[in-house]
Amino acid sequence: MLKEFKDFIAKGNVMDMAVDIIIGAAFTAIVGSLVADMVNPLIGLFMGGVDFANLSASVGEATFTYGNFIMAIINFLIIAFVVLMLVRQVNKTKKAEAPAAPAGQHRKSCLQTS
User: What does the domain layout of the chain look like in residue ranges?
Assistant: First the structure.
């Protein structure tokens, strides 16, 4: 059983996944800081300093801070947009690096004659 576990861990897919998770966590911190420290203050400037996080409603003893939920949605949309821009840039880079077909070779087409 120990050997089987060692073989499982040594597989490339497991190691790649572990690296992806670690890089993803670091990337999340970067994008979270970008949103919290740079984008949200800009949104506040354009919206006259409105801070949704302070919005709440009370019903009896319960307090519903729906402003935090609104901010979470806004942050999600901003993060999704930033990730989209990064993925688009990576895809453009990959397409630019794709090897072109050699100049002397052409595709042959198969024509069927009756």
Answer: 2-89
Beta partners for residue 62, in sequence order? 59
Q: What is the dihedral of CA 62, 68, 73, 78, to 10 degrees?
A: 180
Q: What confidence tier does 17 reach under pLDDT thresholds 50, 70, 90?
A: confident
pLDDT higher than 70, residue 31: yes
Rounded Cα gap, residues 114 and 108, in angstroms: 19
Q: Is the dihedral of CA 7, 12, 16, 19 positive or negative?
A: positive
Domain 2-89: which CATH class? mainly alpha
> What pTM value is reported for the model?
0.53
Q: What is the DSSP letter of 110?
A: -
